[in-house]
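Running this now, will post back.
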Amino acid sequence: MTIAKKHKAKFGANTQLITLSAVFAALTYAMTAFIHIPTAKGYIHIGDAVVFMAASLLPKPYAMAAAAIGASFSDMLSGYWIWVPATFIIKAVTVLAFTSKKSRILCKRNFTALVPALVLCVGGYGLYSGLVIYGSLPAGFVDAPANLFQTAASAAVYIALSATLDKSGIKKRIH
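Update: finished.
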């Protein structure tokens, strides 16, 4: 293979990954910003289901970018600027628990990754709000039940969607 052909093949693959990352960022934004329930300190949404899906389909750097950008834009454009730093970090780190290297989306690793995702969401936002916003750790965890519910609802959507997409064989077509 010539250098030109190698470069063209790499460019095409990178273009596809960047495009898919942008789609996942947009879907994360939409599922977070437009389908949510307001709470006292923020809102509950199912956008994390898209974060989990991106983490199961895209290589880590692309999934991390899609998750962090999509979720952060939702906070910014919904008026919750104070949460952007936490969201950017928590969503990017959440991706690390998942793998895109298995033949199925809902493999054992991705199913068990839902537990660290829940811990990161509840613990990350609790620590951030307690230490940065309220200056009191107990106050930071007042919204823990809402964060727990949010992650559980996103996990349920992710499991249902993954099972359906695995049956369709979409992972083979993407890769």
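Confidence is low (pLDDT under 50) at residues 1-8. More later if anyone needs it.
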